[in-house]
Amino acid sequence: MVPANDAETLILDLVRPVEDIETVTVEDSLGRVLGRAISSQLDFPHWDNSAMDGYAVRYGDVATVPAQLTVVEEIPAGQVPQSTLRSGEAARIFTGGLLPAGADTIVIQEKTQRDGEQVTVLASPAEQAFVRKQGSFYQAGAELLGPGIRIGASEIAVLAAAQCVPVPVYRRPRVAILSTGDELVDIKQSLGPGQIVDSNRYALAALIAQLGAMPVPLGIVPDQKEATRQAIADALTQADMVISSGGVSVGDYDYVDQILAELGATIHIRSVAVKPGKPLTVATFDHSEGDHSEGKLYFGLPGNPVSSLVSFWRFVQPALRKLSGLNTGWSPTFVWAITDSDLKAGGKRETYLWGQLVSADDGYRFTLAAGGHSSGNLVNLSRTNGLAQVPLGETMIQAGSLIRVLMLDRSI
Ligand SMILES: Nc1nc2c(c(=O)[nH]1)N[C@H]1C(S)=C(S)[C@@H](COP(=O)(O)OP(=O)(O)OC[C@H]3O[C@@H](n4cnc5c(N)ncnc54)[C@H](O)[C@@H]3O)O[C@H]1N2
Ligand code: MOO
Ligand SMILES: [Mg+2]
């Protein structure tokens, strides 16, 4: 059993990120990974402008107050000033308005008294107060955004302001999903004795989509060698990464590892010291013939519904983030929280217990989900947003203790 952190490092080393770039509109770039460095031919701000509603003045005129000035012009945002400000003059200006030549300082209107064409400045501002200087935020030609970042609302604002159309992004990785098991039935099929709905397919597809990749569900694979071989070989032709669930433990019908080996894969991991989720197969196809499989990563997740999700959060998620072209932030986010429940574990594996993480005045608090923490109990996993980690070797963490919790992304 490989310790969890070692497994994560090993897995990340095996990932070859996608390199193909496609272009999308700014609107469609939300959630995508930027593929190239972006720069703008414009300075930000584009020109000297006012940060406040008030008066543009020459600082020398208002260094001592009260100072009376003649208002020679009005400059709303979007209008080009007509005059050059001379000593003794002011221009009425509004937020975003272009600073007129000759002016170097803004006096906010609250510090003035207006009387017809005259304005009296009552308090002396700092020199250059409330002037947004051209190029003070960014200078034309420098790098504005680097490749490998996830595009969110703030990046979209920057891309739009820089008139970056279209946006170069890495293509979304395609991730094939195979569900192995003779007992599995499709969602619409009625259940016979011993049968169970293939819920892993849907959960894994949701997680893949949530990470901005493209799930490619390839259906149920019976517990037969030939069918497993066919399904894996076919999945490799269709996807950048393949995930299967089930068939990776020690049962007589658990064929995944055997077939991977027969297909020429290198198996790097067979089990990890994690509960739930001990059986975990990680393989690559570096040495296989055929163009499709070259370098592709294969995850054989355990079939138990909770185990497969925990394995995904802990190990597939970082790999998929790296595969997508992200250059940082691959690992799951852990936060420190005070547990208000006792946390029990076997001690032989790093154990994850699911529950609710809430932000309180003094930091995070963790409450264990009620009900059995069995790897088959997907019912009480719902509405949870954190996995409390009981480290290897520990059997009990008492309520009130500080613990690490893996945050689950519930943003969708
Ligand atoms: N003798 C041992 N038996 C088992 C061990 C062990 O060390 N020695 N490990 C156990 C652990 S821990 C796990 S986890 C499971 C993992 O087994 P597999 O990955 O081989 O999965 P399956 O046996 O195919 O299925 C397990 C369980 O999950 C249900 N399942 C499978 N696929 C789906 C799906 N797509 N959707 C919903 N549920 C699914 C399946 O019906 C089984 O109940 O092995 C233990 N055994
Ligand atoms: O590794 Mo299993 O997931 O404990 O049920
Ligand atoms: Mg099994």
From TrEMBL:
Residues 176-322 form the MoaB/Mog domain. Its cofactor is Mg(2+). It holds the Pfam family MoCF_biosynth. GO terms for biological process: Mo-molybdopterin cofactor biosynthetic process. Pathway: Cofactor biosynthesis; molybdopterin biosynthesis. Its EC number is 2.10.1.1. Keywords: Magnesium, Metal-binding, Molybdenum, Molybdenum cofactor biosynthesis, Transferase. One of its GO terms (cellular component) is cytosol. InterPro entries: MoaB/Mog-like_dom_sf, MoaB/Mog_dom, MoCF_biosynth_CS, MoeA-like, MoeA_C_domain_IV, MoeA_C_domain_IV_sf, MoeA_linker/N, MoeA_linker/N_sf. GO terms for molecular function: metal ion binding; molybdopterin molybdotransferase activity. It catalyses: adenylyl-molybdopterin + molybdate = Mo-molybdopterin + AMP + H(+). It is an enzyme of class 2 (transferase). Catalyzes the insertion of molybdate into adenylated molybdopterin with the concomitant release of AMP. Belongs to the MoeA family. This is Molybdopterin molybdenumtransferase. It comes from Leptothoe spongobia TAU-MAC 1115.
